[in-house]
Amino acid sequence: MAKLLYKRLGLLFSVLGGLVATRVFSAVWKAVRHEDETPSSKDAHRSWSDVLVAAALEGAIFGLVKAAADRGGAIGFQRATGAWPGDE
Asked: How far apart are CA 66 and CA 71, in angstroms?
C-alpha cells in the first residue's frame, strides 16, 4: 500500500522537478551565453553547435534534477513511513 502511495507522490516530484529543471537550464544558458532565448532545433538562425550544446546541457540538467528529486522523495518517504519505496 505504501509503495502505491509513493507512486502518486513520485509523479508529483517528477512534475515539480521538470519545472525546476526548466528554470535552472534557462538560468544557466543565460549566464553562459548571455541570451534570454534558448536555441530550438528548428531555429534556422542557430548553428549545429549551438543547438547540440544546448541539448546536451539541458539533458544533463534534467537528469541531475530528476535524480535529485527521485532520491530526495524516496528518502523523505522512508523517513515518513519507515518503508523504502523502491528495491532494497
From this structure: 8
